Amino acid sequence: MFEREELPNAHLFRWFLIPGCIGLAIAVVLTLLMSSDRLSSSVVLLLWPASIVALIDPKTVWSQVITGMFTFGANFLLYGLIGLSVGYSVYKIRSLTRTH
To answer: What is the pLDDT along the chain (100 residues), one digit of tens a residue?
Structure first.
């Protein structure tokens, strides 16, 4: 009788978190492959655009940590926002095609 509408907030959070973690994993794998010179820089920049910040070559430990946090965090955000937009699009399409 009084059916409660399901809010998409929890689902959208998952649509952000899971692709964000995938983006973080991609950045880690690309870092490992770059350290052994097995990957071209154009592929790295395509999958991990924030890695261009690492070209500043930080000297101190703190600057290396901050640069690493920025580059890995930016990839998490980039992939998470892409996943969030896909999830929101799926939610909107489902709500438009739902018959009442």
So the answer is: 444 445 567 788 999 999 999 999 999 999 999 888 888 889 999 999 999 988 888 899 999 999 999 999 999 999 999 999 999 998 888 888 876 5
Hey, where are the domains in the chain? 11-97
Q: Are the beta carbons of 87 and 31 closer than 8 angstroms?
A: no
Encode 79-90: b = buried (16+ Cβ within 10 Å), e = exposed.
Answer: bbebbbeebeee
**Residue 6, amino acid:** E
Cβ-defined contacts of 50-58 (< 8 Å, 24+) = 50/74, 50/75, 50/78, 51/27, 51/75
**Residue closest to 49 by CA, chosen among 18, 17, 86, 81:** 81
The interaxial angle of helices 61-97 and 9-35, nearest 10 deg, is: 140
- Token readout for 88 is 């929101």
